[in-house]
Design goal:
By secondary structure, the protein is α+β, with helices and mostly antiparallel strands. The protein has a domain of 171 residues: Serine Threonine Protein Phosphatase 5, Tetratricopeptide repeat. Helices cover 31% and strands 8% of the residues. The protein has 13 helices and eight strands. The strands form four sheets. The protein has a two-stranded antiparallel sheet with strand order 1-5. α2 packs antiparallel against α4. The mean pLDDT is 90.
C-alpha cells in the first residue's frame, strides 16, 4: 500500500535536486523571463515532497497502513526535513519567496487596478489555474463573497461563514475565545479579536463600502437584521471579505472591467509551508520544540512566525507543555490563517476528525444590538442574548475519510478494492 507514496516522493525528490530555485535567474529562460511564476521549480518540488510525506504520516494514512491512529514518526521526520530544507533557503533569502507584510495580505488573493496582474506577490508558491477574465473578475468568484444586498444586481450567491468556524478566530492576545483567560466577552463578542478576524470577516455593524463621501447604513447582521434574510443575505450572522477589495460592492462600483479586479486563490502558499513544517516537526519529535536538522526553526517558532506577521501574540505557554495541547492550537492556527482557501476538508479527513459533531454541526450566531451603537468602531458595540444555533448537521461517518472510487474501475479486477464504506 505504501509503494505509490514512495514512488511519488522519489519523483518529487529528483525534481527538487534537478530544478532551479528561480527560472528567471537561469540562462535558458530568457524568452520567458518575468513570466515563470507557474513553472515548476525547486521550491515547489520541496514543498510538495514535504506535503506528500506529511499526508503519508497523517493518522488517516497511518491507520490505513498499520492500524494505528497516531502519526507515523518516520514519515513526519521526512516531511519536516523537506520543509526544513525549503524554509532554510527562504530564511536565508536565497529564494524569490517570502511572507508578505500583513498590510499587503489582500494582494496574495486578488489584484485591483493592475491590468489583471496575477495575485500572490512573493508568498504564493503554486498558483491555481486562471480560467479567463470572465470567471476571475466581477462576474465570477467575486460575487460570492459579499452580502447579496451589496451585489451590483442584488442577486447571486453569498458565502456565509458558519459561526462555529468563525469562533476559531481567537483574541489578539493569542488565546482561543473559549479559554477562561482570553478576556472574550459575549456582550462584546467582536472586541480585541485576532487582527485576521477584522481582515477576513464581516460582522454586525461593519461598513463594507468604501464610499465615505456618501456613507450607507452599517450592515445589519443581528437576528432579523436587514442582512439576515436566509434567501438573500447571511444565514449565519457573518459574511466573508478575505478575497475582496474594499470597493467591490454596488455602491463603489469596484467590480467593473476598468479596475480589473482579479481573484486568484492559490493551491499552496508559504504560510501553509510554515504551518505544515510546524506540524511535521512536532509530530516527528513528539514536542513543540522539535525541529529538522535542515532548519533552525522549531515547530513553535514556525507557528509563531505566522502569528507575528498578523499581529497576534505567540502561542501561550499553556499549549506548549505537550504535543496534544500544541496540536489543538496548530489546528486552530491552520483554520484561521488558511481559512476558506480549500484546505479544511482534507485537513479534517487526514486528522480523522470530519465525522466528529463539533465539526459536522454548523451554527449561526443570534443576538440583538444593545446600548449606544458606534458606526465608526463596530468592534466595540455591545449585544445581548448572544448564542449559537445549529442550522446544518452534516451526516459524515468514517467512510467519508475517503472518497469513493469509480465502480467501473473497481470492476476491472478483484484485487482493485473499493474504499472502505463505499
Amino acid at each position: 500500500a505504501e509503494w505509490p507514496v514512495k514512488v511519488k516522493n522519489l519523483y518529487e525528490r529528483i525534481l527538487a535536486d534537478l530544478l532551479p530555485i528561480d527560472w528567471d535567474k537561469t540562462s535558458i529562460s530568457v524568452i520567458t523571463n518575468g513570466n515563470n511564476q507557474r513553472r515548476i521549480n525547486k521550491v515547489m518540488a520541496l514543498a510538495y515532497l514535504g506535503k506528500n510525506y506529511l499526508w503519508a504520516a497523517s493518522p488517516l494514512m497511518n491507520y490505513s497502513s498499520t492500524g494505528s491512529r497516531e502519526y507515523n514518526r518516520e514519515y513526519a521526520q521526512k516531511a519536516a526535513d523537506a520543509f526544513g530544507e525549503l524554509l532554510n533557503l527562504v530564511e536565508k533569502g536565497a529564494t524569490q519567496y517570502e511572507l508578505v507584510s500583513y498590510d499587503k495580505i489582500g494582494e496574495v488573493f486578488y489584484s485591483y487596478g493592475q491590468n489583471g496582474r496575477m495575485p500572490g506577490l512573493t508568498e504564493v508558491i503554486f498558483r491555481g489555474p486562471e480560467w479567463d477574465p470572465w470567471q476571475n473578475t466581477r462576474y465570477g468568484l467575486a460575487l460570492q463573497y459579499v452580502p447579496t444586498p451589496y451585489h451590483p444586481d442584488g442577486g447571486g450567491n453569498n458565502l456565509s461563514p458558519c459561526a462555529n468556524y468563525v469562533n476559531y478566530y481567537g483574541m489578539a492576545n493569542g488565546l482561543p475565545i473559549d479559554d477562561p483567560e482570553s478576556l472574550w466577552d459575549k456582550t462584546h463578542p467582536w472586541k480585541d479579536r485576532d487582527p485576521r478576524f477584522y481582515n477576513d470577516i464581516v460582522f454586525d455593524g461593519c461598513l463594507i463600502t468604501d464610499n465615505y463621501q456618501n456613507p450607507l447604513p452599517n450592515i445589519e447582521l443581528f437576528t432579523s437584521g436587514a442582512s439576515r434574510d436566509i434567501n438573500t443575505a447571511s444565514r449565519t450572522g457573518y459574511s466573508l471579505k478575505k478575497f475582496l477589495h474594499p470597493t467591490c460592492n454596488r455602491y463603489d462600483d469596484g467590480w467593473g472591467w476598468s479596475p480589473q479586479f482579479t481573484i486568484g486563490i492559490s493551491y499552496l502558499r508559504l504560510a501553509d509551508v510554515y504551518l505544515m513544517y510546524a506540524e511535521a516537526a512536532a509530530q516527528a519529535s513528539g514536542s513543540p520544540s522539535g525541529k529538522s536538522a535542515a532548519c533552525q526553526l522549531s515547530a513553535l517558532d514556525a507557528i509563531n512566525k505566522i502569528r507575528q506577521r498578523a499581529g497576534v501574540e505567540n502561542v501561550n505557554s499553556k499549549f506548549t507543555g505537550n504535543i496534544d495541547s500544541f496540536m489543538s492550537e496548530l489546528r486552530r492556527e491552520r483554520a484561521v490563517e488558511l481559512s476558506f482557501e480549500g484546505h479544511r476538508f482534507n485537513d479534517l479527513r487526514r486528522w480523522m476528525l470530519i465525522d466528529k459533531p463539533e465539526y459536522a454541526n454548523k451554527t449561526s450566531v443570534e443576538f440583538k444590538r444593545t446600548g449606544d451603537f458606534d458606526p465608526a468602531h463596530p468592534e466595540n458595540n455591545a449585544v445581548s442574548g448572544y448564542h449559537e444555533e445549529v442550522i446544518v448537521s452534516r451526516s459524515y461517518s468514517e467512510k467519508h475519510y475517503w472518497l469513493p472510487l469509480k465502480k467501473s474501475d473497481c470492476n476491472i479486477s478483484a484485487e482493485f478494492k473499493q474504499n472502505p464504506g463505499w
